[in-house]
Specification:
Order of helices and strands of chain B: EEEEEEEEEEE
Helix content of chain A: under 10%
Oligomer: heterodimer
Helix content of chain B: under 10%
Largest sheet of chain B: 7 strands, mixed
Number of strands of chain A: 11
Structural class of chain B: mainly beta
Largest interface: A-B, 21 and 19 residues
Distance between the termini of chain A: 37 Å
Structural class of chain A: mainly beta
Radius of gyration of chain A: 13 Å
Shape of chain A: globular
Strand content of chain B: over 45%
Strand content of chain A: over 45%
Chain lengths: ~110, ~120
């Protein structure tokens, strides 16, 4: 199975700041990566697909990038509603696998 | 708008089968892929499997022969059956549409395996 090592496990940032969450794939996944946001009691919401494409309706302060097998989610100009847990997920190979999640707290 | 809704028992006894239904509105399940994902206490997410527009299936090998995903196209529903459950199967179960990534999700149903 492809392992997705996600970091950090949690972070705290202030309104207006920029944060970066990373996922390291155990092998090349050829940009077949998605990022999701999940708020407590809600289902996950797709933010980014194919590593860097913004899902319709998602604010442009969210962006995705890649460098080799390292994938990053950047959130600019943090808003209070960005408090959530974020997951990466690869769909290059079966079984699809997820990162362990990053809990973002807004100070 | 595509909407998915899971339904099924919230409590299952060990060694029994877990059966869930995902009802889809706004889109036909004879297009794309339709999957089941679960989230364990502590946040770990696991892809369980999916059923395709043609009815073919793909499963996570970790679930071996315990899992079955089927569908009823006349009702636009698909189903999860997980056999021989243990307490390790306690999780929130989600159904979702797979279209290159999981773009539409149900609200999730919490299932506890306990005697």
């Amino acid at each position: 199975d492809i392992q997705m090592t996600q970091s950090p496990a949690s972070l705290s940032a202030s309104l207006g700041e920029t944060v970066t969450i990373e996922c390291l794939a155990s092998e090349d996944i050829y940009s077949n990566l998605a990022w999701y946001q999940q708020k407590p009691g809600k289902s996950p919401q797709l933010l980014i697909y194919d590593a860097s494409s913004l899902q319709d309706g998602v604010p442009s302060r969210f962006s995705g990038s890649e460098s080799g097998t390292q994938y990053s989610l950047e959130i600019n100009s943090l808003q209070s509603e960005d408090a959530a847990t974020y997951f990466c997920q690869q769909h290059h190979d079966y079984p699809f696998t997820f990162g362990s999640g990053t809990k973002l707290e807004i100070k | 708008e595509v909407q998915l809704q899971e339904s099924g028992p919230g409590l299952v006894k060990p060694s029994q089968s877990l059966s869930l239904t995902c009802s889809v509105t706004g889109y036909s399940i004879t297009s794309n892929y339709w999957g089941w994902i679960r989230k364990f206490p502590g946040n770990k997410m696991e892809w369980m499997g999916y059923i395709s527009y043609s009815g073919s299936t793909s499963y996570n090998p970790s679930l071996k022969s315990r899992i079955s995903i089927t569908r009823d196209t006349s009702k636009n529903q698909f189903f999860l059956q997980l056999n021989s459950v243990t307490t390790e199967d306690t999780a929130t179960y989600y159904c979702a549409r797979y279209y290159g990534s999981f773009d539409y999700w149900g609200q999730g149903v919490m299932v506890t395996v306990s005697s």
